[in-house]
From TrEMBL:
Residues 84-336 form the MmgE/PrpD N-terminal domain. The gene is PDH1. Residues 353-529 form the MmgE/PrpD C-terminal domain. Belongs to the PrpD family. It comes from Orbilia brochopaga. Keywords: ATP-binding, Lyase, Nucleotide-binding. This is ATP-binding cassette transporter CGR1. Pfam families: MmgE_PrpD_C, MmgE_PrpD_N.
């Protein structure tokens, strides 16, 4: 305590500049009391600053604390970011057939990814109730299990299944993410509500209600991600899962528009996950359950507001204490477009490989190079080096040429490892990532990995951010040990990109079938696929009845 007191009272040069003192002394809006409410036509409250104190003022923790009590123009108007989200989920009518058809494919693909994750004990050990043996009446059912959980724990379970293998859909912009992660919270709540409604003699929610929620969650997460980089301030993209899921489940739970504003404000103030667990030297399996955690927090917050808790109207814009000042370096969010159906219509499917999405086109190019080497009578052993011409995001996230790979999470986020495996074995599967896998144990894979380098192509980076293109380009140039340089192989858009959607549809359904096959009889798998291919029947099916088709005793 003595050391801490000395540290706090010591005069620090970096904290006595005028700019630092102005920042520390800015005033906050009045605390939003329980009696307050969110007006329907609200806008961002002005961000206010007070005059700087004399330059000679000493740094004091007491001064910082007192600044929150300085007189300011109190405002109960909610940040426009919050009200726009609430207005969208409560008022926007979705009429896009493309969005619903894409949502259907995303729904099937995402559930299939969750079933595939059940083959990995590292995932299944995290599932189930907090207290063994707990069975919640009318509770959320977890696909691939016989668990019946409260919706909060159910959201964690389903969200963790979905994300475990990094094989569900993807959205790439200033921020990256996987919008179908939101299904963890949406399906958990929809299933629980449906079972509860039926027990009370009421009608259940339909699968179309789930798809509507998915379109909305995709749009909220994706539009926030277009121009706002959370990774550049060290925050994980699952903050957007928490926000989007909170908004959608608030509507499903019957919250009003103003209550939804309150719930979303709680999601922003909830404290956000750091990206630490996604990057060397700390890459680890939390990245696989972070979305499940975000889904469960979202459901919990919506339920708290349903019980009467209020919100924080300027949670984003409040000087000193708001999200912008505390976590976003003082910047306000920017938006490229209003909420609609754009994100679902343009979302990316991971069709070909269970790999971080920025690597998909590199792996596809490597597969073509493998075929070229075979025709030449050569193999990966004849490769001297490989250069990957790529975009900036690929380098930021998965360029780990010389870094040690110590676990599954390291390997499925290393472009060099994934390209090396493809060049060595003409495959890349989930079974190539565990520590005891053939690929992870291969000296050739490791040696080649360290001879694969990445260089940024500014045009590729520009194309990646271009709203009209949104490509994820990679190009590979291979030099052989005899000095031969193979022709560069470039792939701009992966199979799951919108411009290749029709080509991808049968592959998406085959991926779904492949993920179901180990868990159910051939006839049951056929029934699920036939149902998935019949939108009219699928959309009108009760949520709980459909979920029951995935339950294993």
């Amino acid at each position: 305590m003595f050391v801490a007191r000395r540290a706090l009272t010591r005069r620090l040069p970096g904290l006595t500049s005028n700019s630092a003192l102005v920042s520390a002394a800015r005033c906050c809006p009045a605390v939003f009391g329980r009696a307050g409410g969110f007006p329907r036509n609200s806008t961002n409250s002005p961000r206010q600053a007070v005059a700087a104190p004399p330059a000679s003022a000493a740094f004091s923790t007491r001064a910082a604390l007192m600044s929150s009590h300085a007189p300011t123009a109190a405002s109960h108007e909610a940040d426009k970011v919050l009200t726009d989200i609430a207005d969208y989920v409560h008022s926007y009518k979705i009429e896009s057939d493309l969005a619903y058809d894409t949502a259907r494919l995303v729904f099937l693909d995402t559930l299939g990814c969750g079933m595939e994750a059940m083959n990995f004990k590292e995932c299944t050990k995290l599932l189930g109730p907090v207290v063994d043996g707990t069975v919640v009446p009318n509770g959320t059912r977890v696909p691939g299990t016989n668990y019946q959980l409260d919706p909060i724990r159910g959201a964690f379970n389903i969200g963790t299944q979905i994300r475990w293998l990094d094989y569900n859909d993807c959205w790439l912009a200033a921020e990256w993410g996987h919008p179908s992660d939101n299904l963890g919270g949406i399906l958990a709540v929809a299933d629980w509500l449906s079972r509860t409604y039926k027990s009370e003699g009421k009608a259940a929610l339909k699968i179309k209600d789930v798809l509507t929620g998915m379109i909305q969650a995709h749009e909220i997460q994706g539009c926030l991600a277009l121009l706002n980089s959370f990774n550049k301030v060290g925050l994980d993209h699952v903050v957007l899962v928490k926000v989007a899921t909170t908004a959608v489940v608030s509507r499903l739970l019957g919250l009003t528009r103003d209550q939804t504003v309150a719930a979303v404000s709680q999601a922003w103030v909830d404290g956000q996950s750091l990206r630490t667990y996604r990057h060397s030297p700390n890459t680890m399996s939390r990245k696989s359950w972070a979305a499940g955690d975000a889904c469960s927090r979202a459901v919990n917050l919506a339920l708290i507001v349903k019980k009467g808790e209020t919100g924080i109207p300027t949670v984003l814009s409040a000087p000193v204490w708001g999200f912008y000042d505390v976590l976003f370096k003082g910047k306000e969010f920017e938006f490229q477009r209003p909420y609609g159906t754009y994100v679902m219509e343009n979302v990316l499917f991971k069709v070909s490989y269970p790999a971080e999405f920025h690597s998909q086109t590199a792996i596809e190019a490597a597969k073509k190079i493998y075929a070229t080497l075979q025709k030449m009578g050569k193999s990966a052993e004849d490769i001297e080096n490989v250069v990957i011409r790529t975009h900036e995001a690929c380098i930021r996230i998965i360029d780990k040429q010389h870094k040690p790979l110590t676990n599954f999470a390291d390997r499925d986020h290393c472009v060099q490892y994934m390209v090396s495996v493809m060049l060595c074995y003409n495959r890349l599967e989930t079974t190539d990532y565990p520590d005891d896998s053939e690929a992870a144990q291969s000296p050739l894979v490791e040696s080649l990995r360290r001879r694969i380098s990445c260089v940024e192509d500014p045009q590729y980076t520009a194309d990646y951010h271009d709203p009209a293109l949104r490509t994820i380009p990679n190009a590979l140039t291979v030099t052989l040990k005899d000095g031969t340089v193979l022709e560069e192989v470039a792939v701009d858009a992966p199979l799951g990109h919108r411009i290749r959607r029709e080509e991808a549809k049968p592959v998406i359904l085959e991926k779904y079938r492949r993920h179901l096959a180990p868990h159910f009889s051939e006839q049951h798998v056929k029934s699920l696929i036939d149902l998935g291919n019949d939108p009219a029947k699928l959309f009108e099916m009760d949520v709980d009845t459909y979920v029951d088709m995935y339950i294993k005793k």
